[in-house]
Amino acid sequence: MDRSIGRRCLHGAVLLVAAALAGAVGAASFALAADGLKVGVGRTVITPNEPIWMSGYAARNRPSEGVVHDLWAKALAFEDAQGGRVVIVATDIIGLPRELAEDAAARLNAKHQLARSQIVLNSSHTHSGPVVWPNLRSMYFLGPEENARLERYGKKLVDDLVRTVDAALADLAPARVSSARGTVKFAVNRREPSPKGVRLGVNPEGPVDHDVPVIKVSSPDGALRAVLFGYACHCTTLGGDSYQINGDFAGFAALELEKALPSTTAMFASLCGADQNPHPRGTMEWAERHGKTLAEEVRRVLGGEMRPVGGPIRSAFETTELEFAPHERATFEQDAESTDKYRQARAKAMLAAYDAGKPVRSMPYPVQAVRFGSDLTLLALAGEVTVEYALRLKREFPSENLVVMAFCNEVPCYIPSLNVLKGGGYEPVASMVYYGQPGPFAENVEETVIAACRKVLKAVGVEP
Predict the structure, then answer these.
(1) Is the previous residue joined to 416 through a cis bond, with omega within 30 degrees of 0?
(2) First-last CA distance in the chain
(3) CA angle 214-265-379, nearest 5°?
(4) Residue 217 pairs with which residues in a beta bridge?
(5) At the N or C end, where does the chain have fewer CB atoms within 10 A?
(6) Pairing outcome for strands 384-385 and 414-415
(7) Parallel, antiparallel, or unpaired: how do β-strands 224-231 and 265-270 relate?
(8) What whole-number distance in Å separates Cα of residue 450 and Cα of residue 389?
(9) Which of 68, 95, 24 is nearest to 414 (CA)?
(10) pLDDT tens by residue, 287-343
(11) Which residues are within 8 A (CB) of 35 and not within 5 positions of it... i.e. 6 or more apart?
């Protein structure tokens, strides 16, 4: 071979290698520049430090008896290249009442100048955690000692939420963020038709949402730092006969992920699963198995192709009013004479409102949206939201990478779709007694919520 040709070939090969390396470096730099995000992670144990009354089931008759695993508050803080911020906090609790959520938000605003739209508070809705007073205020009839424990826990919980966000903001560092979706199928619609109306059971024909959205946070060198994942299913694998503190399947899933992925913080976000139950259910073994199933799917998604997520970060927060169906004082006067202590408690509160000249006719309802560039949008809905909301919103915005979260910011009651409302049963009617609400919502509830969703989505740049 001619030496000059060999030299030219070698020179060309060197150039090709150099170009390839430059391209790889450039692509990595482009990816980081496109992301333009910093992310911080914070976490705090929120396990009660004393026996405490547990939430979710009226049938319980004594405080907790031991801890299976810790409950956590975990936070991701995001900051874009322009300084725009949002914090997402995931908690292993039944739900936040408005009083505690707004206290935490006000403190974070004063301390970090975070607007209300920049703070997302999500609850896993575990039914194996403590009462968070005054959530479900008509469900519990406790003595002074138990009430004092709940007050102490609530006060400490707000401190812990603020402390967790403090840690996340202090941890901000350049990051690569990406998202994708998986699927698991242990959630089943629980609104079972029967000759006597809809009951809590198993309805394989009912609507479900088996999506598992996954958000991955890595350092610039690719090391995994955190994962946020969600599922639309009640954390009710364990029933009212369980007295051990734990996070149900969501808590077990996070534990499984953190065991398999050391140095990673795993956070569960509850989606629109208010009318969905795990199936099968009833034992700790099933809680662990469902958690493992969910964790394995998250790991599979993390190992596959994921969509890059970047800035800028935009957020919006709107409070609308949900109307209750018409009611009269006579209804609550009759309930006050009932042998049902839960109806009596609700009636007492409603009659006091009538006496003050302010009968409860509507309820404030917060809706929130957070959008990362045009790559990912989180819609955060308050309350126990039934699955048809998520299915409808994903149909209305088919081109958007939309994650519809529920149990966000505050949990005042169930938020039924129109179909669920008309069907009656536990979610739209009976549960309102335990939540201390006057009764079911008016039939415009779904359209009112959807209108508020459209408004906040439009505010962050999302169009149908």
Answers:
(1) no
(2) 64
(3) 40
(4) 177, 226
(5) N
(6) parallel
(7) parallel
(8) 8
(9) 95
(10) 999 999 999 999 999 999 999 999 999 999 999 999 999 999 999 999 999 999 999
(11) 175, 176, 177, 308, 309, 310, 311
Q: Measured between alpha carbons, how far is 114 from 106 in angstroms, rounded to an integer?
A: 9
Rounded-to-integer distance, Cα 223 and Cα 129, Å: 32
DSSP 375-417: TEEEEEE-SEE-HHHHHHHHHHSTTS-EEEE-SBS---SEE--
User: Is the pTM value of this prediction over 0.90?
Assistant: yes
With a CB cutoff of 8 Å and minimum separation 6, the contacts of 60 are: 53, 54, 240, 243
Q: What is the DSSP string of 289-318?
A: HHHHHHHHHHHHHHTS--EEE---EEEEEE
Question: What mean pLDDT is reported for the chain?
Answer: 93
Task: State both tokens at 211.
Answer: 């999506």
- At 368 the three-state DSSP class reads strand
Residues forming beta bridges with residue 79, ordered by sequence position:
38, 85
- In whole angstroms, give the CA distance from residue 227 to residue 298: 9
In this structure, the number of other CB atoms found within 10 A of the CB of residue 280 comes to 14
User: CA-CA distances (angstroms) from residue 401 to 87, 274, 366?
Assistant: 19, 22, 22
pLDDT of residue 135: 87
Asked if 220 contacts 176 with a C-beta cutoff of 8 angstroms, the reply is yes
**Token pair 């403090």 is at which residue?**
166
Is residue 294 within 8 Å of 214, Cβ to Cβ?
Answer: no
Is 108:162 a contact under the CB 8 Å cutoff? Answer: yes
Residue 442 CB burial class (10 angstroms; 0-12, 13-18, ≥19): middle
The residue written with tokens 């970060």 in the block is 313
**Long-range contact pairs involving 148-155 (C-beta distance under 8 Å, separation at least 24):** 149/48, 149/50, 149/51, 149/52, 149/53, 149/63, 150/52, 150/53, 153/48, 153/52, 154/100
